[in-house]
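Case 352 in the screening queue. Each case pairs one protein sequence with one candidate compound; here the compound is coproporphyrinogen III. For every case the pipeline is the same: read the inputs, emit a complex structure as tokens, and attach any notable structural observations.

Predict complex for case 352.
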Amino acid sequence: MSHDVGEDVERAPIWIMRQAGRYLPEYHEAKGNRDFFECCRNPEIASTLTLQPIERFAGLLDASIIFSDILVIPQALGMTVEMVDKKGPHFPDPLKSPDDGQYEKVLNKNVDVAAELDYVYKAITLTRKKLKGRVPLIGFCGAPWTLFCYMVEGGGTKLFIESKKWIYRHPEESGALLQKITEVCVEYLALQVQAGAQLIQVFDSWAGELSPSTFKIFSEPYLAYISKNLPRRLKELGLETVPMIVFPKGANYALDSVCNLGYDVVGLDWLIDPAEAVKIRGKRRVVFQGNADPGVLYGSKTAISEMVKAMVGGFGGGKKGWIANLGHGITPLVKPDDLKFYLEEIQRLTSS
Ligand code: CP3
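Case 352 output:
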């Protein structure tokens, strides 16, 4: 982007979480019968998938996000993660307790972040080449708290029983694991920037499973560590810092303090009214990103237009301090043309 974060723009920039994915028929075509993680590990395929939405929605999307997954970090930490069709991620051997043997192994593993995740950096460099400057490329990682949940639950969950057992029975051991994950995140993000990522996003998809008091203990300090140490690490590598986005989904209860975490951009889910978020932000130079209910894309054109109008109005017209997106990832059954209409409406209503 040729703009500084928080600068006036001619219209709101737009990208969509999970914009490269299953709602696109060309995604299924390019993926074929390949395993999901095999696609992530193949720079040619990962870059093809990254570019698909940019090509289909040319002129309507202002950023690309590298095709990968947040669970490549647990893999780099030595854990097995499979992607089960129609079910999602599965860890055959999750971390059961601090004395299950694997916990110590993960904690003491000397992770070679450059070697273990080399395929991601290669995919980023190749994607930058193929993008030819059309739009910037976003790198990302999962937030420590969210990765911790996956590593102890072994997959998706509704109740978060294992995560809660860990934090409420073994707070110190949980903290040590969170710190270990955090250090890998910093190095991983730095190497993504070195490979060509121009912004980074940290996805804290499960932040809403904490509470105001536990968010302060089990998520915030690690998010702050990343925003503080990524620029330091980039400097060491002789690189300029990049804009940093944090998306603590469900943690609107902590929005005021999230605005002080050192990130340039804060992603919002759809449970907060944009005008309310803007009020909480006050005069701070933080950009918001989001936040329509992804489900509106299953609605009528009228419903989509109304949603965009309200959102643009709430964010103050869209010429400053806002990156348009959805409040979470786009879901698999959305029709690509309905997303196209959403993007067009945002452009129309923020460029006047
Ligand atoms: O376009 C993009 O946003 C880039 C690619 C991307 C993927 N996953 C590809 C993917 C990104 C940024 C992610 C992040 C991710 N992965 C998150 C954080 C964002 C969020 O949604 O909260 C999380 C929690 C994961 C873990 C994960 N990966 C889950 C829970 C699932 C299955 C859930 C589902 O939607 O069914 C995945 C699989 C996954 N990651 C797919 C894609 C395109 C679907 C794989 C397939 O079946 O083809």
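Case 352 observations:
- The CA atoms of residues 309 and 349 lie 7 Å apart.
- Residues 17-22, 36, 65, 67-71, 83, 88-89, 140, 156, 203, 205, 329 surround coproporphyrinogen III (CB under 6 Å).
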